[in-house]
Design brief:
Number of strands: 14
Shape: elongated
Low-confidence stretches: 13-24, 34-42, 253-265
Strand order of the largest sheet: 1-5-3-4-2
Strand content: 25-35%
Protein backbone atom coordinates (compact mmCIF):
# COMPACT_ATOMS: atom_id res chain seq x y z
CA UNK A 1 0.00 0.00 0.00
CA UNK A 2 2.77 2.42 1.00
CA UNK A 3 4.76 1.55 -2.14
CA UNK A 4 1.68 2.30 -4.22
CA UNK A 5 1.22 5.70 -2.58
CA UNK A 6 4.89 6.56 -3.05
CA UNK A 7 4.67 5.62 -6.73
CA UNK A 8 1.52 7.73 -7.23
CA UNK A 9 3.19 10.68 -5.47
CA UNK A 10 6.30 10.30 -7.63
CA UNK A 11 4.20 10.12 -10.80
CA UNK A 12 2.23 13.22 -9.76
CA UNK A 13 5.38 15.25 -9.07
CA UNK A 14 6.97 14.09 -12.32
CA UNK A 15 3.88 15.06 -14.32
CA UNK A 16 3.67 18.43 -12.55
CA UNK A 17 7.34 19.13 -13.25
CA UNK A 18 6.90 18.16 -16.90
CA UNK A 19 3.88 20.45 -17.24
CA UNK A 20 5.75 23.33 -15.64
CA UNK A 21 8.71 22.75 -17.97
CA UNK A 22 6.45 22.72 -21.02
CA UNK A 23 4.71 25.89 -19.84
CA UNK A 24 7.72 27.99 -18.87
CA UNK A 25 10.58 26.63 -21.00
CA UNK A 26 11.25 27.62 -24.59
CA UNK A 27 10.66 24.83 -27.07
CA UNK A 28 14.37 24.45 -27.85
CA UNK A 29 15.72 25.20 -24.37
CA UNK A 30 17.10 21.75 -23.54
CA UNK A 31 18.72 22.89 -20.30
CA UNK A 32 15.45 24.32 -18.97
CA UNK A 33 13.42 21.25 -19.90
CA UNK A 34 16.00 18.79 -18.55
CA UNK A 35 17.84 20.57 -15.74
CA UNK A 36 19.57 17.41 -14.47
CA UNK A 37 20.70 16.15 -17.86
CA UNK A 38 24.45 15.73 -18.42
CA UNK A 39 24.18 18.28 -21.25
CA UNK A 40 22.46 20.71 -18.92
CA UNK A 41 23.65 22.87 -16.06
CA UNK A 42 26.79 20.84 -15.32
CA UNK A 43 28.33 21.91 -18.61
CA UNK A 44 26.82 25.31 -19.29
CA UNK A 45 28.55 28.31 -17.74
CA UNK A 46 25.77 30.58 -16.55
CA UNK A 47 26.24 34.36 -16.38
CA UNK A 48 29.56 34.03 -18.18
CA UNK A 49 30.70 35.08 -21.66
CA UNK A 50 33.84 35.23 -23.78
CA UNK A 51 34.58 38.82 -24.87
CA UNK A 52 37.25 38.23 -27.52
CA UNK A 53 37.79 36.12 -30.65
CA UNK A 54 34.16 36.39 -31.73
CA UNK A 55 33.95 34.95 -35.25
CA UNK A 56 30.29 35.78 -35.95
CA UNK A 57 27.35 37.37 -34.20
CA UNK A 58 23.93 35.97 -35.13
CA UNK A 59 20.47 37.03 -33.99
CA UNK A 60 17.03 35.55 -33.33
CA UNK A 61 18.30 32.01 -32.65
CA UNK A 62 17.54 29.50 -29.93
CA UNK A 63 20.39 27.93 -27.98
CA UNK A 64 20.18 24.74 -30.06
CA UNK A 65 20.21 26.73 -33.30
CA UNK A 66 23.21 28.68 -32.00
CA UNK A 67 25.17 25.49 -31.32
CA UNK A 68 24.14 24.12 -34.73
CA UNK A 69 25.60 27.21 -36.43
CA UNK A 70 28.81 26.68 -34.46
CA UNK A 71 29.23 23.20 -35.97
CA UNK A 72 28.73 24.65 -39.46
CA UNK A 73 31.23 27.53 -39.16
CA UNK A 74 34.97 26.93 -39.42
CA UNK A 75 37.03 27.54 -36.29
CA UNK A 76 34.09 27.55 -33.87
CA UNK A 77 34.77 25.83 -30.55
CA UNK A 78 32.19 27.48 -28.28
CA UNK A 79 29.25 29.90 -28.16
CA UNK A 80 27.97 32.80 -26.10
CA UNK A 81 24.18 32.86 -25.87
CA UNK A 82 22.11 35.76 -24.54
CA UNK A 83 18.72 34.29 -23.74
CA UNK A 84 16.77 37.52 -23.37
CA UNK A 85 17.99 38.93 -26.69
CA UNK A 86 18.38 35.60 -28.52
CA UNK A 87 21.87 36.67 -29.63
CA UNK A 88 24.43 34.01 -30.53
CA UNK A 89 28.20 34.58 -30.62
CA UNK A 90 30.19 31.95 -32.51
CA UNK A 91 33.61 31.76 -30.84
CA UNK A 92 37.20 30.81 -31.56
CA UNK A 93 39.48 29.58 -28.77
CA UNK A 94 39.79 31.68 -25.63
CA UNK A 95 43.17 33.42 -25.54
CA UNK A 96 45.76 31.96 -23.18
CA UNK A 97 45.48 33.62 -19.79
CA UNK A 98 42.07 35.11 -20.53
CA UNK A 99 39.08 34.23 -18.34
CA UNK A 100 35.36 34.31 -19.00
CA UNK A 101 33.66 37.56 -17.99
CA UNK A 102 30.54 38.00 -15.88
CA UNK A 103 27.37 38.94 -17.79
CA UNK A 104 24.06 38.21 -16.09
CA UNK A 105 21.58 36.26 -18.19
CA UNK A 106 24.16 34.86 -20.61
CA UNK A 107 25.47 31.34 -21.21
CA UNK A 108 28.87 30.13 -22.39
CA UNK A 109 29.13 26.58 -23.73
CA UNK A 110 31.79 24.53 -25.52
CA UNK A 111 30.54 22.75 -28.63
CA UNK A 112 32.18 19.53 -27.40
CA UNK A 113 29.25 18.88 -25.03
CA UNK A 114 26.84 18.63 -27.96
CA UNK A 115 26.48 16.09 -30.76
CA UNK A 116 27.77 17.31 -34.12
CA UNK A 117 24.85 15.48 -35.76
CA UNK A 118 22.99 18.76 -35.12
CA UNK A 119 24.78 20.02 -38.24
CA UNK A 120 23.11 17.42 -40.47
CA UNK A 121 24.96 16.80 -43.73
CA UNK A 122 27.56 19.41 -42.70
CA UNK A 123 28.60 17.36 -39.66
CA UNK A 124 31.72 15.88 -41.30
CA UNK A 125 32.38 18.65 -43.81
CA UNK A 126 35.63 20.59 -43.37
CA UNK A 127 35.63 24.30 -44.25
CA UNK A 128 38.57 26.62 -44.77
CA UNK A 129 39.12 29.40 -42.24
CA UNK A 130 36.53 32.13 -42.70
CA UNK A 131 34.00 29.80 -44.34
CA UNK A 132 30.77 28.11 -43.34
CA UNK A 133 29.08 24.98 -44.63
CA UNK A 134 25.89 25.63 -46.62
CA UNK A 135 23.32 22.92 -47.30
CA UNK A 136 21.88 23.17 -50.82
CA UNK A 137 18.27 22.50 -51.78
CA UNK A 138 19.55 19.93 -54.28
CA UNK A 139 21.00 17.92 -51.41
CA UNK A 140 24.64 18.90 -51.82
CA UNK A 141 26.81 21.16 -49.67
CA UNK A 142 29.29 23.94 -50.38
CA UNK A 143 31.46 26.51 -48.60
CA UNK A 144 30.74 30.24 -48.40
CA UNK A 145 32.50 33.23 -46.85
CA UNK A 146 31.07 34.13 -43.45
CA UNK A 147 33.77 36.09 -41.57
CA UNK A 148 37.19 37.74 -41.95
CA UNK A 149 39.83 35.09 -41.26
CA UNK A 150 42.77 37.52 -40.93
CA UNK A 151 43.65 39.15 -37.59
CA UNK A 152 41.71 42.31 -36.81
CA UNK A 153 43.46 45.46 -38.04
CA UNK A 154 45.05 47.50 -35.28
CA UNK A 155 43.14 50.72 -34.60
CA UNK A 156 45.68 52.99 -32.93
CA UNK A 157 44.37 55.45 -30.34
CA UNK A 158 40.84 54.11 -30.79
CA UNK A 159 38.43 51.88 -28.88
CA UNK A 160 35.70 49.60 -30.21
CA UNK A 161 32.32 50.65 -28.79
CA UNK A 162 30.22 47.67 -29.92
CA UNK A 163 27.95 46.73 -26.99
CA UNK A 164 28.97 43.05 -26.90
CA UNK A 165 32.46 43.34 -28.37
CA UNK A 166 34.07 43.29 -31.80
CA UNK A 167 32.97 40.59 -34.24
CA UNK A 168 34.04 39.47 -37.74
CA UNK A 169 30.84 38.92 -39.75
CA UNK A 170 31.11 39.46 -43.50
CA UNK A 171 29.92 42.99 -44.42
CA UNK A 172 29.56 43.96 -40.76
CA UNK A 173 30.86 47.27 -39.46
CA UNK A 174 32.32 47.61 -35.97
CA UNK A 175 32.06 51.13 -34.59
CA UNK A 176 35.00 52.88 -32.90
CA UNK A 177 35.69 56.11 -31.06
CA UNK A 178 38.99 57.93 -30.65
CA UNK A 179 40.64 58.27 -27.28
CA UNK A 180 40.75 61.61 -25.50
CA UNK A 181 42.97 64.12 -27.29
CA UNK A 182 42.50 62.52 -30.71
CA UNK A 183 40.19 63.50 -33.58
CA UNK A 184 38.28 61.01 -35.73
CA UNK A 185 39.20 61.39 -39.41
CA UNK A 186 36.96 59.46 -41.79
CA UNK A 187 34.04 57.21 -40.90
CA UNK A 188 34.26 55.48 -37.49
CA UNK A 189 34.02 51.90 -38.76
CA UNK A 190 36.19 48.84 -39.19
CA UNK A 191 34.47 46.66 -41.80
CA UNK A 192 34.91 43.07 -42.93
CA UNK A 193 34.22 43.56 -46.65
CA UNK A 194 32.48 41.16 -49.03
CA UNK A 195 35.84 39.61 -49.99
CA UNK A 196 36.60 38.69 -46.39
CA UNK A 197 39.19 41.47 -45.96
CA UNK A 198 39.38 44.19 -43.32
CA UNK A 199 38.78 47.80 -44.34
CA UNK A 200 39.54 50.47 -41.73
CA UNK A 201 37.69 53.65 -42.70
CA UNK A 202 39.23 56.02 -40.16
CA UNK A 203 42.25 57.04 -38.20
CA UNK A 204 42.60 58.97 -34.96
CA UNK A 205 44.72 62.08 -35.40
CA UNK A 206 46.39 63.95 -32.60
CA UNK A 207 44.40 67.16 -32.34
CA UNK A 208 47.64 69.15 -32.56
CA UNK A 209 48.70 67.53 -35.85
CA UNK A 210 46.98 67.95 -39.23
CA UNK A 211 47.40 65.73 -42.32
CA UNK A 212 49.92 67.03 -44.89
CA UNK A 213 47.72 66.14 -47.88
CA UNK A 214 44.88 63.83 -48.87
CA UNK A 215 47.17 60.81 -49.09
CA UNK A 216 47.33 60.94 -45.27
CA UNK A 217 43.58 60.35 -45.12
CA UNK A 218 42.83 56.60 -44.67
CA UNK A 219 41.50 54.54 -47.57
CA UNK A 220 37.73 54.14 -47.23
CA UNK A 221 37.13 57.67 -45.94
CA UNK A 222 34.52 59.64 -47.85
CA UNK A 223 35.37 62.32 -50.41
CA UNK A 224 34.90 65.83 -49.04
CA UNK A 225 36.51 68.92 -47.53
CA UNK A 226 39.46 68.26 -45.20
CA UNK A 227 41.86 70.62 -43.44
CA UNK A 228 45.54 69.97 -44.16
CA UNK A 229 48.76 71.59 -42.94
CA UNK A 230 51.46 72.64 -45.40
CA UNK A 231 54.56 74.59 -44.40
CA UNK A 232 52.97 75.70 -41.13
CA UNK A 233 49.84 76.95 -42.92
CA UNK A 234 46.36 75.41 -42.88
CA UNK A 235 44.26 74.91 -46.01
CA UNK A 236 40.79 73.54 -46.65
CA UNK A 237 41.00 71.16 -49.60
CA UNK A 238 38.73 68.72 -51.34
CA UNK A 239 39.98 65.14 -51.06
CA UNK A 240 38.87 62.75 -53.81
CA UNK A 241 38.80 59.36 -52.07
CA UNK A 242 36.82 57.53 -54.77
CA UNK A 243 38.98 57.81 -57.90
CA UNK A 244 41.42 54.93 -58.43
CA UNK A 245 44.43 55.35 -56.18
CA UNK A 246 42.40 57.59 -53.80
CA UNK A 247 43.84 60.49 -51.80
CA UNK A 248 43.79 63.07 -54.63
CA UNK A 249 44.06 66.64 -53.35
CA UNK A 250 42.12 69.45 -55.04
CA UNK A 251 42.18 72.99 -53.67
CA UNK A 252 38.83 74.54 -52.84
CA UNK A 253 39.81 77.60 -54.89
CA UNK A 254 40.02 75.42 -58.01
CA UNK A 255 36.64 73.86 -57.25
CA UNK A 256 34.96 77.27 -56.86
CA UNK A 257 36.68 78.52 -60.05
CA UNK A 258 35.51 75.48 -61.99
CA UNK A 259 31.97 75.88 -60.63
CA UNK A 260 31.81 79.58 -61.55
CA UNK A 261 33.19 78.94 -65.03
CA UNK A 262 30.65 76.17 -65.61
CA UNK A 263 27.78 78.45 -64.54
CA UNK A 264 29.08 81.25 -66.81
CA UNK A 265 29.22 78.91 -69.82
CA UNK A 266 25.71 77.67 -69.02
CA UNK A 267 24.37 81.23 -68.95
CA UNK A 268 26.11 82.05 -72.26
CA UNK A 269 24.61 78.97 -73.93
CA UNK A 270 21.13 79.93 -72.74
CA UNK A 271 21.35 83.54 -73.94
Amino acid sequence: MKKGLVFILFLTLYTLNKCLSEEFCDQNDIECQHPDNIYGNRYLHHDRIQQTNILCRLQQLSLIECVTKCFMISGCVAVNYRKDRKICDVLDELDVGENLKVEVGSIYAKNSIWSKTLAGSCADYTCFAGDKCVELETGGIRSAYVYCKDPVQKAYNATCIETFGLYKNLKAGNQFKCKAGFLMIGRPFLICNENGEWNKMFYCRDMDILPRDCSDIPHGSGSGIYTISLEDQQFDVYCDMDTAGFGWTVSVVKIIYFFLCSRTLENQDMS
